[in-house]
Request: fold
Amino acid sequence: MRYFQYLTNEERQGIFHVSPVSFTKNSEKEILAHGIGPLLYMPGTRNQIADEIISTKHRSLVSMVICLEDAIGDNQVAEAESTLVAQMNQLALVTNNGRVAEDDIPLIFVRVREPVQIKRIVNLLGESSFFLTGFVFPKFTVSNAEEYFQTLQECNKTLGIRLYGMPILESPEIIYKETRLGALVEIRRILEKYRELVLNVRIGATDFSSLFGLRRSHNVTIYDISVIRDCIVDVVNILGRRESGYVISGPVWEYFNGQKGKALSTYSQMDYEEGLIREVLLDKENGLFGKTIIHPTHLKVVQSLYVTSYEEYMDAQTIISNANGDLGVIKSDYENKMNEIKPHLSWARKILTRARIYGVYHAQNSYRNILIEKAHV
Reply:
């Protein structure tokens, strides 16, 4: 599995200075944490998931969540669990009989409602659990954090594998000013305790917004909603420090243009894409990487924005290659900025990690070169 594998060799050579590497659910944790990228949510009641993976219907799909929480009704939990088991067993069957290569299965996560559901899902899946990459922990707070990770740890010990956890920060004590910092500091302490199981930390802006009766419009970014931006700042400050090293994912972009929308909406697909592009660019500038998405049309847009530019790549290479103590600052190859070795070293390492996973554009190329390949969506 690798990003942009739907491109032909000729297209890939024309777009990339460095092509993306292949990786699997068993790759090193740093690669997986950044490689999740745009994470596509699907309701647990959807019974075509396995068929769509087998047929590669969504050719850009690399990571996905089967959701047993907010994406389904409270009265649909048993149905969703049964459907999830059937879908995973179907994937196990076609993989075991050689119809689909195991390395071509996307990174699959399950979003549960509560810690006890993790153990129930693992018991229901049995050996099919091996096709999961991990679980998503919604409404993650100080009060349930230990139980989530202890349950995951017990399941891993029983299965003899490593399933990762991805907590979602979306509860009142995180967004409310008077409790935020204390909650984040305590959550950081707990995450450190289970660090080897924490793949990344996600931000649930929809739940945050609901606490204030807010919903952002398609033509603004989450950073224009001041109360949410204020919270994101503190999450990055507490959990995104260089010494922490947690990958923090950007909030969901919820707009898309379906067939009915084309007839009824005042706005075009281009309007929605431009809003998503603006927000992903701001995610990156603010230290967030990865994004929750709810429609396949978002995959290609977000992925194309994660490809490293040639200029970034050259700057990062220069910084890394000169981090031997002989120089403190060096002019960039583009002669448009100064690269300070020590202050920019952490940034450079992140850029090179991203370059391995998503590739590097040729100097004259950008995300637009990916997006114009409409035939490959």
The radius of gyration is 21 Å. The chain has a mean pLDDT of 93. The first helix runs from residue 9 to 15. The domain at 21-306 is CATH 3.20.20.60 (TIM Barrel).
